[in-house]
Amino acid sequence: MTVPLHPGAQRVLDIGRAAGGTPFEAGSPQEARAAYDAGCSTLQGDREPVGAVEDIEIAGPGAPITVRVYRGKHAPASEAPALLYLHGGGWVIGNLESHDDICRWFANLAGCVVVCPDYRLAPEHRFPAGLQDCAATLVHMVGAAEALGIDPARIAVAGDSAGGNLAAVLALMARDGDVPPLSAQLLIYPNTDAAQTADSYRRFSQGYGLSASTMKWFRDHYIRNEADFADWRVSPLAADHLDGVAPAYIVTAGYDILADEGEAYAERLALAGVPLVRRHRPDQIHGFVSMGRHIPAARETIQEAVAAWRSFYPRLDPA
């Protein structure tokens, strides 16, 4: 039985239709970024005060990376848990401002330090440039743990949509020793399969916010060629196995073209025996966590993710 759309989600869709405008794929990436940035303030949740916010520059593989560091109100001054947050936006749009509310929620609710990199975007910087920036940020967090006042043994990664894709890939890299270890991966409606053949692409191809044609446009700007579809660093669902990755929280939305691939990834995590907290919001659309002004489930989902992260802490204790 299909669950009706939440009134807040319907309101967001109505706002989008009333505003008009052209789909992202009808214009340039620069035009898409400008349109996305202009609409964020009408959808975002409250920007909660946090203990401190600072933009810094760190060394990156291509150029210096601007990183925003949030210290939650109740985060300890030293050895605080830390979260690497990777923003969504199809690897093409999004920035430090577009997900500022989510980072603030995480910082306060978890009493942690959140680090959010302004990683390089496609198509100017195609795969794996953005991923490399995210990996470099994680390496920096461990190396600068004392200066950041964080506990390097309690770093988690989180992200939404394309950011969820990057977070899942980093968790696989961490398992394999290519980047420092992670205490958890918190995946919010992640993109896990660049092939885009899941049935949810048909069921929700248009009319529910993120359309199938827009997602194809995002992907085609990100990848170098179709051979990248099968690369697990683009499609983590294509990884040989998920055994040994960090404990995971994963949430999917009912009216989302990415719903089926997110559920498929959660199922593989479960089959691999990975500690897992799995949630499904059947009445929500893609991107709802960035729509806190209209959708209460936005902040509630971050609360759930924080609770899941905390539940994984015992795994960090010596046997």
UniProtKB/TrEMBL annotation:
UniProt family annotation: Belongs to the 'GDXG' lipolytic enzyme family.
Entry annotated with the keyword Hydrolase: yes
Catalytic site: S161
PANTHER family assigned: AB HYDROLASE SUPERFAMILY PROTEIN C4A8.06C, ALPHA_BETA HYDROLASE FOLD-3 DOMAIN-CONTAINING PROTEIN-RELATED
UniProt protein name: Lipase
Keywords, alphabetical: Hydrolase
Keyword set includes Hydrolase: yes
InterPro entries (alphabetical): AB_hydrolase_3, AB_hydrolase_fold, GDXG_lipolytic_enzyme, Lipase_GDXG_HIS_AS, Lipase_GDXG_put_SER_AS
Single annotated GO MF: hydrolase activity
Pfam families: Abhydrolase_3
Ranges where the Alpha/beta hydrolase fold-3 domain occurs: 83-289
Superkingdom to which the source organism belongs: Bacteria
